[in-house]
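@channel sequence for tomorrow's demo:
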Amino acid sequence: MLHDERAYAALVRSLEIGLGDVERPKLDDANWDEYHLRDVAEKMCLVIVYNLVQKHGPKMLLQAKFVEKWLAEQAWGDTEEDRQRNFAAYRKSRVNNLIRDIIDIISNSRLGLSCLKEAKLMNMANRTSSGRRRSGLSISSSSDMPDDTVDVRRRRREAIVIHDGEGPLNHGDIILRNHRRANDDFEIG
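structure tokens (generated this afternoon):
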């Protein structure tokens, strides 16, 4: 139901409006995962965006100006050189969050690379894929052009939902497995 132009435009607009709500975390340390400091409304939009682009590819998200209106507005750095260096380091880092996953999907498409270059987050020297391999299912979709294949890697998700049946289900009722730890601990999502 959400895979249409108006829904993508609304999601991007919601993310764009949220930019002024809180101070954006500085993204100059590629090994620090800032995602958990972000606003809940922003994270919920990113969950929807991720699920849509994972299933349908990034074309409609890119047409809604996600890169220009939201991704490029993150605190990548003060100069163009800093922004490109920090963005490239973030793409190559071991950070494992939805923003990074969306960036991976975008940068695996020709249209996405073009948008990232136009937004001055990338130049031709750092246009290579992140090189990060993930376990999971690989699917191909023709999202940008008929012959353009996009490799989309799905993240394995495991969760426990604890809900007493009173009121609506909310984000605090979901406990996600944290695959980054050596043991199989769960964390409240």
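heads up for whoever presents: The chain has seven helices and five strands.
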